Amino acid sequence: MFVVVPINDLVVIKPKKFGMHIEDVIAHELNSRFSNKVLQKVGLCISLWDITHVGDKFISHDDGSYQVAGSVVEFHHNVCLVSFRFICFRPSIDEIIVGTVKSCTRDGLHISLYFFDDIFIPADKLRHPSKFDFEQQSWIWQYEDDRGSADLRIEKNDVIRFVE
């Protein structure tokens, strides 16, 4: 569910931060840029884990900012990238996730994972047969087995398990 992902990126440090500890400034810049952002094929970035390499610093000729170089991967005009690792939320296929129902609509369920509130389970992905109760704004799974049937209600604030 959570992975530590190696990333390389260019970090620009403005002149007003030159007197500060360089690793603290870089950590702040990286957290500002990546935290709470979704990177394609990586996942939801949570927080900086560590900085693995800080390379040479080049002063930009246009605004006087440091451009920090780190890894061996070249970027524009021979400027290299800083190497670091980020904690990312990346559930695997068929992984069971536990969340809380934020709201129920006729379109489906809105789920919170406490640190991430934008999960939506569409109505057609709910267990069949299910129906929406407009009066109570909840979903009802009409569970059936050999011994009979039961209506299992899913309401706001219920803790549920679902598969990604």
Q: Which descriptors apply to this entry?
A:
RNA_pol_Rpb7-like_N_sf, transcription, 8% helix, OB fold (Dihydrolipoamide Acetyltransferase, E2P), Dna Ligase, domain 1, RNA polymerase III subunit Rpc25 domain-containing protein, 164 residues, Rpb7-like_N, four-stranded antiparallel sheet, single chain, 14 strands, 49% strand
Describe the 3D structure.
- By secondary structure, the protein is mainly beta.
- It has 2 domains: 2-89, 2-Layer Sandwich (Dna Ligase, domain 1), CATH 3.30.1490.120; 96-163, OB fold (Dihydrolipoamide Acetyltransferase, E2P) (Beta Barrel).
- The protein has one helix at residues 22-34, and strands at residues 2-9, 11-13, 38-39, 43-53, 57-59, 66-68, 82-89, 96-105, 108-112, 119-122, 130-133, 138-145, 148-154, 159-163.
- A 4-stranded antiparallel sheet has the order 1-7-4-3. The chain has a 4-stranded antiparallel sheet with strand order 10-9-8-14, with no helix packed on it.
- It starts with a strand and ends with a strand.
